[in-house]
Design goal:
mainly alpha; two-stranded antiparallel sheet; 2 strands; 51% helix
Length: 88
């Protein structure tokens, strides 16, 4: 993953924005989850950058959705059963 203790809020927001379309993509979901966790762990009491405002409750809800998706995809490495025809 890309974020660490030297990362900035700009790094975390960029990573989150780059992976907004995480639905059905475990790799993007993991990167978005990492960014959300970083933002929540390193949040200030008030955070504003020009016209940007972060809603911590919305971000916490997004974190729950990401964690659910990632945990589901971690255990579903196998293909689901499909019906087939015998090749004769």
């Amino acid at each position: 993953m890309a974020l660490d203790s030297t990362s900035t809020i700009t790094d975390a927001l960029s990573q989150y924005n780059d992976n907004l379309a995480w639905d059905n993509d475990r790799t993007k979901a993991l990167l978005a989850l990492e960014a959300v966790r970083w933002l929540l762990a390193n949040r200030a009491q008030v955070m504003s950058d020009g016209g940007t405002r972060l809603d911590w409750n919305d971000l916490a809800n997004e974190k729950k959705h990401l964690e659910q998706f990632v945990s589901l995809t971690a255990t579903s490495g196998r293909s689901s059963f499909t019906r087939g025809k015998a090749l004769i």
